[in-house]
Amino acid sequence: MNPVERPMRPGAMVADIGLGVVFALGIAFTAYMLSTSWGKAYWAYDSAVAVVVVRLRCCASGGRCGPRPQV
């Protein structure tokens, strides 16, 4: 069965949202700490790299790289 066609378990969406919130808070905290210590410009580079790393990790773990298509 294709992973895209599989129904999502009840707790999976809550776990995905919680993980997204944790990642977003981690990126925001790191950006804040970098902007206060290294300067105002470096936070943008770090945030972009963090978003790419999180996106790659999400693709590797579940095989889904975006929102589920509505069937």
What do the pLDDT scores average to?
75
Can you count the beta strands? Answer: 0
Helical content class: 55-70%
How many distinct helices?
2
| Distance between the ends | 15 Å
SSE class: mainly alpha
Biggest sheet overview:
none
- Detail the poorly predicted runs: none
DSSP strand content: under 5%
Shape, per Cα inertia axes? elongated
**Rg of Cα set:** 16 Å
Order of helices and strands: HH
At a glance:
By secondary structure, the chain is an all-alpha fold. Helices cover 69% and strands 0% of the residues.
Descriptive report:
The chain is built from 2 helices and no strands. It is mainly α. It is elongated and about 45 Å long. α1 (10-37) runs antiparallel to α2 (42-62). The longest helix has 28 residues, at 10-37.
Descriptors:
71 residues, elongated, 69% helix, mainly alpha
Write the layout of secondary structure elements.
Layout: H1 10-37, H2 42-62
Helix pairs in contact: 1-2
